[in-house]
Amino acid sequence: xxxxxxxxxxxxxxxxxxxxxxxxxxxxxxxxxxxxxxxxxxxxxxxxxxxxxxxxxxxxxxxxxxxxxxxxxxxxxxxxxxxxxxxxxxxxxxxxxxxxxxxxxxxxxxxxxxxxxxxxxxxxxxxxxxxxxxxxxxxxxxxxxxxxxxxxxxxxxxxxxxxxxxxxxxxxxxxxxxxxxxxxxxxxxxxxxxxxxxxxxxxxxxxxxxxxxxxxxxxxxxxxxxxxxxxxxxxxxxxxxxxxxxxxxxxxxxxxxxxxxxxxxxxxxxxxxxxxxxxxxxxxxxxxxxxxxxxxxxxxxxxxxxxxxxxxxxxxxxxxxxxxxxxxxxxxxxxxxxxxxxxxxxxxxxxxxxxxxxxxxxxxxxxxxxxxxxxxxxxxxxxxxxxxxxxxxxxxxxxxxxxxxxxxxxxxxxxxxxxxxxxxxxxxxxxxxxxxxxxxxxxxxxxxxxxxxxxxxxxxxxxxxxxxxxxxxxxxxxxxxxxxxxxxxxxxxxxxxxxxxxxxxxxxxxxxx
Amino acid sequence: xxxxxxxxxxxxxxxxxxxxxxxxxxxxxxxxxxxxxxxxxxxxxxxxxxxxxxxxxxxxxxxxxxxxxxxxxxxxxxxxxxxxxxxxxxxxxxxxxxxxxxxxxxxxxxxxxxxxxxxxxxxxxxxxxxxxxxxxxxxxxxxxxxxxxxxxxxxxxxxxxxxxxxxxxxxxxxxxxxxxxxxxxxxxxxxxxxxxxxxxxxxxxxxxxxxxxxxxxxxxxxxxxxxxxxxxxxxxxxxxxxxxxxxxxxxxxxxxxxxxxxxxxxxxxxxxxxxxxxxxxxxxxxxxxxxxxxxxxxxxxxxxxxxxxxxxxxxxxxxxxxxxxxxxxxxxxxxxxxxxxxxxxxxxxxxxxxxxxxxxxxxxxxxxxxxxxxxxxxxxxxxxxxxxxxxxxxxxxxxxxxxxxxxxxxxxxxxxxxxxxxxxxxxxxxxxxxxxxxxxxxxxxxxxxxxxxxxxxxxxxxxxxxxxxxxxxxxxxxxxxxxxxxxxxxxxxxxxxxxxxxxxxxxxxxxxx
Lengths: 513, 513
Known about the structure:
Two copies of one chain form a homodimer.
Chain A: H1 4-23, H2 28-45, H3 66-85, E1 89-90, E2 96-98, H4 99-102, E3 124-126, H5 131-140, E4 146-155, E5 169-178, H6 185-201, E6 206-212, H7 213-222, H8 230-237, H9 245-255, H10 260-270, E7 273-274, H11 276-284, H12 292-310, E8 317-320, E9 333-339, H13 344-353, H14 357-361, E10 365-371, H15 375-379, E11 388-393, H16 395-408, E12 420-424, H17 430-442, E13 447-449, H18 457-467, E14 471-475, H19 477-482, E15 484-489, E16 495-499, H20 503-511
Parallel strand pairs in A: 1-4, 6-8, 12-13, 12-14
Antiparallel strand pairs in A: 2-3, 4-5, 5-11, 6-9, 7-8, 9-10, 10-11, 14-15, 15-16
């Protein structure tokens, strides 16, 4: 630990850095970063001015306590069950990749990648998503067909907004189909999966927006956007869910140098929403129909809706020309699922905490994905293409909602599955308790014993109530003499003597429900 | 990607680095590291001398393919089932910690910690184990009682030996009991858990070695080791499983400066192995009994064996005075489980591959742990102690063995759980297939359909054979007219018409087994 005077010196100079940035009207992000450093230094001094350990997790990360883990497990199980229902295998890749594997895949977002320190050897970076490692895996193993899911943590040096479920370390749950198949069949399955998962998780009403990169590019072309501005204008369109059209237009014209006329034409298109009918109308649109790319995208959207009708999911799906998605690697259909209603829970929380309604309600997109037919080829020495389409479930935002729900609910979340506590009614029965619990464990029964030589019966029973353990096996002198165990139901306090020979089957019978 | 000439220049100068190191007789480790860099550079040139991407995972890491994941899932399920049977909750912590959280916890091994690059903000390191993050979690949340398991990846910049299951990124499966309890009860449960898991995984015979840091320290004291040399002599003793006593003695005397007499006395003790009787004998030993610490440790070993007898696990447990364990933070009982026989599989593999017998047989320790009563206090501003004891299952070595077993077995590992394939016997039935599979998914049935408009029946049936899918639902013109589906059993080729109304219950009935 550092010396007190040294830290006080560091606080002083860090304070000056912050003041300087403020006077220079630096970006909020930059100032926040420096203020955080200042606070970290101050925390080292502690209340009494003594040097202290900073006891925290890194910025933008969190621990999961047992209750949060129980919720997490439930959500994961729902998602994995769905992925398995659709026949997916699973793979895993390392948490870090060679730095060059990630280079050139994320456009402007590359600055958010965590690099490892150069300690000799290879240059490494933490994975930014699961899609690029998947593409690297396919190319490296020359796999041309696979349907796989991958659930793992990814890392982004982003500005965290943890109350809304935005972290620097967060889980992604990805399902992808790689292979050369007939158009829109795997794509439709991805949307069916989003529909199934959001339905099962019961998070309230939702919409799945659908668009196609080829429609966007075609639209940009017929509106007079120069070729080299497609990607940057696309990034601006992507902000329509957070900014008004006026602001988006301003950015296009003032910052990106687009003509006002072109921007206005884009503005007309990106306000359009509909279903298969909209795709049909746009195929007749005198401007849009001039773009071959747009027509290919629109025909595929029509086909997609046809398959989605067979899956009975079109009630939640909207063809939305304003959907752009940030990532560079998409080449065809893209989609994003958003929750559309403030859940009852958020409203309640808001009333309780006086939190900003926007903050607690808009958890943003909870799933997204699309087709990326070119990514695997970027890794193949001969550029061989493996067409891919996939979806990523934004699990952290879903956790946030589920946690709020659990907190608002009177029901208690159990964090263990213990079926029975082995207890004693008198002193000096530790050995008998250990012998009995060993028998139960060997029979596959989930059991606990208190780690005391002579625990009080009351404290053993209280522990059961707190932990939600339904049964207690009580040993006493009399029970040992009679060759029985007193089986107590915690909820009803009902007790019955069971012979040692029948105990295991009796516990199994009572806890099987 | 870099320019060809630039890379050739780099290869040339790297070649000189290697030559220089060799001429200077540098360490093998150092030379290997530089040779690896040279090979990586050469790989960039590719066969045709064009610049190329290096398509690999970072040194010491690996991907898990679907088959390996199926094995991993099976092993994890066995372990988690055991942890849950013993009433453990689970937590999770971030993959990286503040650098200072890890500082001063691992002794000489600290050099193996991965640091993140300083990109502004906090200094971070990848976790080295799950124990230190657990202690940080307890101190930060002021938790004084918990029984938790944690399964996650940890990171060590070690020299990988991947054929023997030693990686730089690897899983740990930790179970720990924190709290002030009566002596040796939680400690005995940890050993019972190791016994249960190794039994269930069916890896062949094993031994669990037990010792106590207090016995080691007491032994060092009575043998005349100076106080300040306890930890370093302990590290040398720890090498007895890999080095002969002669070499260990040499290191003690020549490198660590211990007197020959003291070394010889230690040599007598560390050759001792036994059970409760050995602990009793040593309590009477005229030298050992002079150390209060040693006596406290020996009494606890006696108590431990008493509890282990009640658990019926003493057949596998050995009190072994040569067991030292590397980590600094242990304060009481320590243990380590090793597989004691070359499994039939390794022998078979060896014959096939001509591999070194030692290599394929000695997978080393598969579990280890001990008591660390001081670690949590290191994180508490007021130094409050939370006694802890725990065990870590060395899962990668277990994976290696299970993978070898699976490869040697004629049985096929299934990587999905698909119950039925929805197929068609004629052309133009895609819509009917999609409609039917949607019904099956909605009923919770695991089903697949081929992503082709008009797949051949034969290729659909072949896919089922390869993937181990037991049933096929075949649609044809006639079946559609009759309102039935032809249900085919892949193994027997038996076919039967089932009405659409009964299909779901029939599939469930047939796949419930």
